[in-house]
């Protein structure tokens, strides 16, 4: 009998340690090492791995001899989902969808599976719910019968692969990869070895038979997809489904895409009848904006290739603590601290004795610096208790010298604002002249002091002096 020994495997990066440690020496993750029994023996996965070899890639091919066009893409039936994918699914691709528990991942792919089954053969593999539960959800969503839509409630990987090879579907959805296990491995479902093995075999099956495969993945407490990072490297596309569980809207972000642009976004609204596509997200996010309150500014941001108008709110008030409070929701905390320092030094706005709260309405996360000018103007408006012009957009990156720097794709942002009725825009001088004509009044500024001069002088509160 082969000798059995113990080793400890990191569940984040798959690093192996001979003894347990509180912190992984490779990825610095805490409490990620799990005990595993190892027995020296022949590789029992050899037969399985040989079964799913890339048979069609055993010969040399010239690039010009390969037949492919964008017309080969398969549509999901949801325009917002197709947008995130770069125009639809590429046959043989492997797509990973992650998101918080209860955010609507299964609902999204169940709706897409039903719509795709109108023209494609689809198999939905459920490893977490029974077929009756899937049927109950489908009934609530109003699905009718479809001869091309099939369900498979199974957790054993070898059985799943055998059925898929026999049925030869065009689309497969696996919900979820952490619940599927290979009985030939001694580890538990969701472990590093199980996740890597499942993804590897699904990838080989997809490439060999040209199946468009979807994988739903859980996320950990940090918001990253659970399992080894190599999982995201193996797949062709990585999508994150996000949003606040207690708010109705959902964002589908593209973090990786070998067949299209990254950081693309699709917008959905969660209703009692399932997820509804939002073709005009700016109107949704500005539905409650009236412009009557101070500290409120509209900023045209860019999510992938889509411009979205969002409202940024700021609240400043006197603080009696030794260390005033700084809080940000939707923008990076360090970015807020930097903007406060610039306003103190370059504009003369004394915020050292004020608490400052900044919030991006609707819970959106803004990563691009093009919203800096909007955040700065929201803080100035709140500090002076001065409502700004509700028909004005603010756009620009703010440097440490107080300068307003240029942003990319400004024409698309302004066109979105014009469609929603905005009349004026404060933009960086470096972005002028614009490449397209617009009916909006465009004011170019070089620094924050010039931005302050655009506020109507008839209101004495509008002037902020150094």
Layout of strands and helices, then pairs:
Layout: E1 4-10, E2 16-17, E3 33-39, H1 46-51, H2 79-85, E4 94-99, H3 105-116, E5 122-126, H4 131-140, E6 149-153, H5 157-167, E7 171-175, H6 192-209, E8 212-217, H7 230-234, E9 237-242, E10 249-257, E11 265-271, E12 274-277, H8 281-285, E13 296-303, E14 306-318, E15 326-329, H9 333-347, E16 354-360, H10 372-383, E17 392-394, E18 397-398, E19 404-405, H11 410-419, E20 424-428, E21 441-445, H12 448-453
Parallel strand pairs: 4-8, 4-9, 5-6, 5-7, 7-8, 15-16, 17-20, 20-21
Antiparallel strand pairs: 1-2, 1-3, 9-10, 10-11, 11-12, 13-14, 14-16, 18-19
What's the helix count? 12
Whole-Å distance between the termini? 82 Å
Number of beta-strand segments: 21
Q: Shape from CA axes?
A: globular
Largest sheet: 9 strands, mixed
Instruction: Look at the structure and give the mean pLDDT.
Output: 87
* Low-pLDDT segments: 44-56, 458-466
Helix content: 25-40%
Strand order of the largest sheet: 6-5-7-8-4-9-10-11-12
Beta-strand content bin: 25-35%
Radius of gyration: 26 Å
Structural class: alpha/beta
How would you explain this protein's 3D organization?
This protein is globular. It has a 9-stranded mixed beta sheet. Strands 13-14-16-15 form a 4-stranded mixed beta sheet. Strands 2-1-3 form a 3-stranded antiparallel beta sheet, with no helix packed on it. It contains 12 helices and 21 strands. With 466 residues, the chain is an alpha/beta fold.
């Amino acid at each position: 009998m082969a000798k059995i020994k113990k080793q400890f495997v990191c569940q984040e990066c798959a690093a192996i340690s001979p003894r347990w440690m509180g912190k992984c020496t490779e990825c610095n993750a805490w409490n990620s090492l799990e005990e595993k029994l190892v027995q020296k023996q022949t590789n029992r996965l050899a037969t399985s791995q040989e079964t799913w070899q890339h048979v069609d890639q055993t010969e040399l091919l010239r690039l010009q001899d390969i037949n492919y066009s964008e017309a080969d893409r398969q549509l999901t039936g949801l325009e917002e989902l197709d947008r995130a994918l770069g125009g639809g699914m590429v046959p043989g691709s492997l797509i990973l969808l992650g998101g918080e528990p209860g955010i609507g991942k299964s609902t999204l792919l169940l709706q897409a599976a039903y719509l795709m089954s109108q023209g494609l053969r689809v198999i939905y593999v459920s490893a977490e719910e029974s077929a009756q539960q899937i049927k109950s959800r489908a009934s609530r969503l109003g699905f009718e019968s479809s001869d091309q839509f099939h369900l498979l409630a199974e957790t054993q990987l070898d059985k799943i692969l055998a059925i898929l090879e026999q049925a030869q579907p065009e689309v497969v959805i696996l919900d979820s990869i952490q619940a599927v296990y290979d009985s030939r491995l001694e580890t538990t479902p969701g472990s590093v070895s199980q996740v890597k093995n499942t993804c590897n075999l699904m990838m080989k099956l997809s490439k060999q038979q040209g199946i468009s495969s979807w994988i739903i993945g859980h996320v950990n407490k940090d918001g990253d997809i659970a399992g080894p990072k190599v999982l995201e490297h193996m797949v062709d596309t990585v999508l994150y489904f996000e949003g606040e569980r207690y708010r109705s809207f959902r964002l589908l972000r593209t973090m990786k895409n070998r067949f299209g642009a990254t950081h693309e976004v699709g917008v959905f609204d969660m209703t009692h009848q399932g997820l509804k596509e939002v073709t005009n997200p700016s109107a949704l996010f500005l539905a409650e904006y009236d412009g009557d309150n101070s500290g409120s500014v509209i900023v045209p941001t860019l999510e992938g290739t889509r411009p979205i108008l969002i409202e940024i709110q700021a609240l400043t008030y006197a603080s009696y603590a030794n260390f005033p409070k700084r809080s940000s929701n939707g923008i990076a905390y360090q970015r807020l601290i930097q903007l406060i320092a610039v306003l103190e030094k370059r504009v003369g706005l004394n915020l050292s004795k004020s608490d400052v709260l900044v919030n991006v309405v609707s819970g959106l996360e803004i990563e691009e610096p093009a919203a800096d000018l909007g955040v700065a103007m929201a803080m100035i408006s709140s500090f002076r208790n001065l409502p700004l012009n509700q028909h004005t957009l603010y756009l620009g990156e703010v440097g440490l010298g107080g300068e307003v720097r240029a942003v990319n794709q400004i024409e698309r942002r302004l066109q979105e604002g014009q469609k929603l009725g905005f009349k004026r825009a404060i933009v960086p001088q470096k972005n002028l002249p614009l490449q397209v004509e617009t009916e909006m009044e465009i004011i170019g500024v070089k620094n924050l002091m010039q931005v302050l001069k655009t506020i109507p002088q008839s209101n004495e509160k509008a002037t902020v002096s150094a």
